[in-house]
Amino acid sequence: MKVLVIGGGAREHALCRSLSLDPDVTALHCAPGNAGIAEVAELHGVNALDGRAVAELAAGLAADLVVVGPEAPLVAGVADAVRARGIPVFGPSAQAAQLEGSKAFAKDVMAAAAVPTARSYVCTTPEEIDTALDAFGAPYVVKDDGLAAGKGVVVTDDATQARAHALACVAQRRDAADGGRAVIEEFLDGPEVSLFAVTDGETVVPLRPAQDFKRAYDGDAGPNTGGMGAYSPLPWADPKLVDEVMDTVLQPTVDELRRRGTPFSGLLYAGLAITSRGVRVIEFNARFGDPETQVVLARLKTPLAGLLHAAATGTLAALPPLRWSDDAAVTVVIASHNYPDTPRTGDPITGLADVAAQDAPEAYVLHAGTRQDASGAVLSAGGRVLSVTATGADLGIARERAYRAVGRIALDGSQHRTDIAAKAAADAAADGGAVRA
């Protein structure tokens, strides 16, 4: 099978790594890719947002499968352009991708499907914003209705900050096709869980849950980011969690979108809060999440290409149950100086070869924002630069391996959290290491 992956972050590197290990994959390509992906796939300088160019590339490569990684190309209709050429593609249509592209649309779908979620207001004026903030009170949860690369959410006790973010969301999209809208929600208490599901628009196959860390600094302090780390499994989670989410969230959502004539085929990501009142959906994404993908794929033993191809061709129901490793996985994100505000780029990265020589295969580095200069040196090229992923018999071992590998990498001014999976590992050790979800 010839596979083309679209994107250039750590999520796409994780996808390419798993696909490169799949014996059914005979050729692997990526556009545009990054310095790390170049080690496992042939790169192509095609704009990931240009559906016509992506479709032309896929046709020219005689690709058997195209995997669209990031959300922006999906919302822009890249998957539609590839499908129009008769090429199987893993990723929803632009219409179905509005489940992530518009939080207001997602709320409408959830209401129709009776999916449990936070109460919310969709606001387009200062008066509506004030009404919503007063209705819910602190802590305030304010979201940009459109795509914001994981950084469009503000959760704060400060009403002035909440109002300013809501007004900014409205103002910056005033001339956009989706209009200027802010979504203001009630605060959901309890731990958060990410659950991915692969679907062909009818059959839904859940993957293993993970937990990510969105705040920039230890102790969940600082601003929201695209994600600073993740782990799987979740020793503290109810073993019935996946079945419950399948019954109340994932399958009803897929069924509702099919009923509307916009079937969702690809990866449906449910961001969940395990509240005192039960499971509630925080948000949907229309693609693999980053950094949760890194830990989920590290545990998946079923070959990836066949799973994604089955979703793309409507044959998921015929696949045998997925196989999973009993090992735990931990990912730690190394970010550039001053991330997430104004991250510095162009700094050299050293120590990557040391990780490969001394820590593999239990620990490895996935590139997010990197590039190579003319001399072949790897430089930072984004806010989140690297995802260091490790596996082990339990979370404690995986965590130790991940941080040992992090310690070998040098990037001037870089930052990373030191507490990824720390509490879960400690609690699991105290509980005898039981694994649940």
What would your notes on this structure say?
This protein has 437 residues and is of the alpha+beta class. It folds into 3 domains: 2-89, Rossmann fold (3-Layer(aba) Sandwich); 120-185, 2-Layer Sandwich (Dna Ligase, domain 1), CATH 3.30.1490.20; 192-430, D-amino Acid Aminotransferase, Chain A, domain 1 (2-Layer Sandwich). The chain is built from 14 helices and 24 strands. The chain has helices spanning 10-20, 51-61, 71-75, 78-84, 98-101, 103-113, 126-136, 159-172, 241-259, 292-299, 304-313, 352-358, 395-406, 422-430, and strands at residues 2-7, 27-32, 42-43, 65-68, 89-90, 120-123, 140-144, 153-156, 182-185, 192-199, 204-206, 211-212, 215-217, 221-224, 229-232, 266-275, 278-285, 328-335, 349-350, 363-367, 370-372, 378-380, 384-392, 410-411. The chain has a 5-stranded parallel β-sheet, sandwiched between helices. The longest helix is centred in the middle third of the chain and has 19 residues, at 241-259. The two termini are 32 Å apart. The model has no long low-confidence stretch (mean pLDDT 94).
